[in-house]
Amino acid sequence: MKSLCFATGILIGILAFISTEIQAQCNHRQSFDRSPVADSIDAIHYQIALTSIDFTAQAIEAIAVISLRPKLTLTQIPLELKSLTVSQVNVNGNPAESFSQSGDMLRIATGNTYGPGDTITVEVHYGGQPFHEAWGGFHFAGNYAFNLGVGFESEPHNLGKAWFPCIDDFNDRATYDVLITLPDNMKGIAGGSLVSATNNGDNTITWHWNISETIPTYLASVVAGEYALNSDVFSGMEAEIPITIYTRPVDSARVAGSFQHLHEVMQAYEAWFNAYPFERIGYSGTAIGAMEHVCNIAYPHTAINGNLNSEYLLAHELSHMWFGNKVTCSSAADMWLNEGWATFCHHYYRKAIYGEESYRAFMNDNHYDVLKNVHITDNGYYALSGVPTQITYGSTVYNKGATVVHTLMNYLGESVFLDVVKAYLDAFAYGSASSIDMRDFFSEQSGVDLTGFFDNWVFTPGTPHFSIDSVVVAHDGNAYRPAIHMKQKHKGAMYTGNDNILEVSCLGPEWQVWTDTVHFDGPTGVSIKEVLFEPQLFVADLYNKTCDATTDEQLIVRQTGEYVFSKPFFKLYVDALPDSAYIRITHHWAPPDSLKQAVEGLRLSPYRYWQVAGIFPENTQMRGRFFYSDGNTLDNTLIQSENDSVVILYRSDAGHDWQWVSQSREGLWSIGYIYVDQLLPGEYSLAVWDRQLVGLGAESPDQQSKLLQLSPNPAGDTIMLTIGKMTIGKLMFYDVSGRCIHECPVNQKSVKVNTSSWTKGVYVVKYTDQKGKFLDAGKFLLK
Length: 783
What we know:
Layout: H1 2-17, E1 41-54, E2 59-70, E3 74-80, E4 85-91, E5 94-95, E6 98-102, E7 105-114, E8 120-128, E9 137-141, E10 144-148, E11 173-183, E12 187-190, E13 193-199, E14 204-216, E15 222-225, E16 228-235, E17 240-247, H2 255-258, H3 262-273, E18 281-286, E19 297-300, H4 311-319, E20 327-329, H5 339-353, H6 356-377, H7 395-412, H8 414-427, E21 431-433, H9 435-446, H10 451-457, E22 463-476, E23 479-491, E24 500-507, E25 513-520, E26 524-528, E27 537-540, E28 550-557, E29 561-565, E30 570-576, E31 581-588, E32 602-604, E33 609-615, E34 621-629, E35 644-651, E36 659-660, E37 663-667, E38 671-676, E39 682-690, H11 691-694, E40 708-711, E41 718-723, E42 729-734, E43 740-746, E44 750-754, E45 761-769, E46 774-782
Parallel strand pairs: 1-11, 17-18, 18-19, 20-21
Antiparallel strand pairs: 1-2, 2-8, 3-7, 4-5, 4-8, 6-7, 9-10, 10-15, 11-14, 12-15, 13-14, 16-17, 22-23, 23-26, 24-25, 24-27, 28-31, 29-30, 30-34, 31-33, 32-39, 33-39, 34-38, 35-36, 35-39, 37-38, 40-41, 41-44, 42-43, 42-45, 45-46
Helix pairs in contact: 3-4, 4-5, 5-6, 5-7, 6-7, 7-8, 8-9
């Protein structure tokens, strides 16, 4: 009887009411080849002499002397060199028997046999116009030249070979001497320390730099041009470290403003990650960037602007000296160990400079972007480890990687986490590591088995989702013993993880807070706790320490009015409020629990639902507005055609079934808002009735506009809105995210709007009267 009454009630409600991405399938990692020569030979030291840089012809001439150690028995030495022509090769001081170039390979016949115990010195003379893609490679920009050590388009991504013959692999590390000969009005900058600047007596200077620690080829660098030096010294925990910031002369006065917190960032990083691992802190202005070359970060001119708008970039690249440069990911498939950690750092540094709340706010913004957009930006859900080459430098690696580091920090506890990170950086110093290496080392060092965590967060696509299913409270004398029942789902993959740890908080009558962790395996779990006050509300992850598939916002409401909760796509209307109220809105990026009994023609969202929770004084009266859109970031898997009529369903908790609530809708069938007339604590889910199955009329207000006529549609630089029966009011234009981007008054029958500066896409226009009453809506495409 219950399900029958439920179905009948919803059908009556929907008849009165009428007047996005499907989760991508797991993407298997595509193969990623290492350097074709890395398994046969190892580089020990490179000496690269750029004897000529021709800024007009955009060409270089150079001599590289490379110390090599075979890993196998060899008669031929293989090296990589891209787009540059070799003119001469010597082996151990004698001309090579022969050499040949094919594609990116240089093969040198030695006339001798060498084995693992030997050291070979190869001298290569070469030149030409070096390779660059849109981002990586060796670039010329007027009277400036510079390299960027990786390419987003190139496969493999390493581009040391764009300017010197090498073993271009993340795992092959060597020391470097770089010599750059330039006209005497220019400076040449490379990594490491400046050994000398020699005046050659012919109006040229040779700049000699040495890198004493081993690095992979993509971290070697050269910058050349008319630079001004801004120098300083940082008093590090182990040494006085020179700071060099090379800029165009015009940018020199802007350095103080843009780098004003460099010392504080360094102090924080050394406290968190141990001593700075190289001999110089260096930034050099370049036309494009940024790139974390050792001691010589290629930093875009636009970021040296006198303000702090790009401070995150300064912090990001500097953190690479630990994450990527001191310890390098063992393959591009584990790039999150470089870029995910650096993205975490460019949020975490804010804690030291601006405070804990600033860090949390920026990480919450990043987390929201991951859940809403990353699977669209990267065209699918991917595990952090084993990413295919096309997203090595994608949003999954950077942004999702940062959220997983944040979660790992709180899983272990911040103090333990930082101790383990220091030990990891020392154990793998000047070497490489994989995700498995990190998992095993962190587990051993912390004493916490991280197998379940890495399986759930690193080796599986998507994001885990946790919620409190129910709480049963027993009263025992002066204590309360809540049995907290947990539930786990997963956004983006069919997977259920183990070894889950999540904070749960309880709020009391005076809004006092008790917090503890719950531990469970699998889809459900229960944990019994003790609380010394009468529980009023239980909340999962009150302090946003776990970046699971939820976004939430909370506030204390002290007066009636309207309150926007932007990340949960929700607006609260408080009509009566006898006393202050605490309210928390959670947007769950996971499917709601299904109907206890299916109803023909009715589908619940397969993607998301809301939870309204709080502590409300008696006689509080609230309404709520819920946003829907068939755009690919939200409801395209629910709203599939004009035949789908959108409604919202409610349940007070997991023990009850979904039911109809009094509601109204504003907008089109594809995008708009649903207003709930009496908002109660509980869960709310979008659903659709299929008109063809339940026999609803073919035409309704959201299908056929009665007042507004839009032309042309699609629109270009302008759109004309003609109103059939004019009422004084206003027009509001919304993009697909529900953001109002333009308003204009209505006091005549035709309104012309200039859209030339708007982003191309789909827009909804809403027409209301002077009191805000909805009159009509329309949709148009801007192309």
